[in-house]
Amino acid sequence: MIQKIFLLLAFTLFTTIVSSQNDATEKANKLTNEMTQALSLDEEVKTKIFEIQLNRFQEAETIREQYMDDSETKKAELKKMYNRLYGKLKATLGEEKMKAWNVYKQNN
Fold first, then answer.
1. What is the CA radius of gyration of the chain?
2. Are 93 and 36 in contact (CB under 8 A)?
3. For residue 3, how many C-alpha atoms fall within 13 Å in the half-sphere facing its CB?
4. Model's pTM, two decimal places?
5. What is the full per-residue pLDDT of the chain (108 aa) written as tens digits?
6. Residue 77 backbone dihedrals phi, psi, to 5 degrees
7. Would you say 70 and 60 are in contact if contact means Cβ atoms under 8 Å apart?
8. DSSP letters spanning 53-93
């Protein structure tokens, strides 16, 4: 009986982790495709942007889980993560494309 409960718990945990990864992948893929269309990115840059966005969504999920009970710390950690994200995107895209992306986001 205990083995069945343990097995069920392990399966549930594994399913949650896989589901969360798939969700992050879907979000990163959707955002990358939108950026690619809006900014006319080539495949090399598109791949880099996907990796950056995927890491972003995974890290944000980890922060939200880790600081679930501490909203102030969670907010501060997410802000640090978004600042790093902006730096990585700017380094990959350049100043002009980042400005174009900000204009696109404001209009859509």
1. 18
2. no
3. 0
4. 0.77
5. 666 665 555 555 555 554 445 789 999 999 999 999 999 999 999 999 999 999 999 999 999 999 999 999 999 999 999 999 999 999 999 999 999 999 999 999
6. -65, -40
7. no
8. HHHHHHHHHHHHHHTTT-HHHHHHHHHHHHHHHHHHHHHHH
How far apart are alpha carbons 108 and 103 in whole angstroms? 9
108: three-class secondary structure by DSSP: coil
Residue whose tokens read 């269309």: 37
CA distances from 100 to 6, 49, 87 (A): 52, 15, 16
| Residue 28: φ, ψ to 5° | -65, -40
- Residue 78, judged by CB atoms within 10 A of its CB (0-12, 13-18, 19+), counts as middle
Q: Are 87 and 47 in contact (CB under 8 A)?
A: no
Contact 50, 32 (CB under 8 A): yes
